[in-house]
Amino acid sequence: MWLRRVNGYFRHHLMPAKTAIIIRHSYADNAHNVADVLRNLSPKGQETAQILLDLLDGKLRPQRLYTSHASRALETAKILNQAWKVPEAQWRVIRTLYIGGEDTYLDAIQHTDPDIDVVCLVGHNPSISYLAGRLCGAFRDGLLPCQALVLTNQDWRANLGTWQLAQNAIPSTIKDA
Description:
With about 180 residues, this protein is an alpha/beta fold. The chain has a single domain (about 15-170), classed as Phosphoglycerate mutase-like (Rossmann fold, 3-Layer(aba) Sandwich), CATH 3.40.50. It contains 5 helices and 8 strands, in the order βββαβαβααβαββ. The strands form 2 sheets. A 6-stranded mixed β-sheet has the order 5-4-6-3-7-8. The longest helix has 14 residues, at about 70-85. The protein is globular, with a radius of gyration of 17 Å.
């Protein structure tokens, strides 16, 4: 909440919530003859990313999408964006998300324009899980492939540990059942 001065008096107003959708990339091929950064999604990974869309709140529409440059993260983001339609100008492909620590992810969130209310980050373990742990105090043991956490707070620069978990989406495929 914040205070606004109206006619000499302070009034309480709710600030619009900020929402971060944090996603570990989907299942990748286990190609041994390809550099790790170039590994594509497996057929199961493509299917799981499609399933994730059904699990996430249909009203969530990211205005900005952050992803690493690794093929599997980019492919996951592109599958999700078939529904979300985040304009290409609002994509941020950040190379350091591939090898950087959770501070790299946190930096992306904390430097998001205050006019943006919903962002999506697609990244890699362990850093994306450590980020979740720092924001909401959970999930440090690791997110599963294509697991998505929807976290909310009042400000992109909110204190660590104060983000609220609004949704934990874990897609499973028919092959998993």
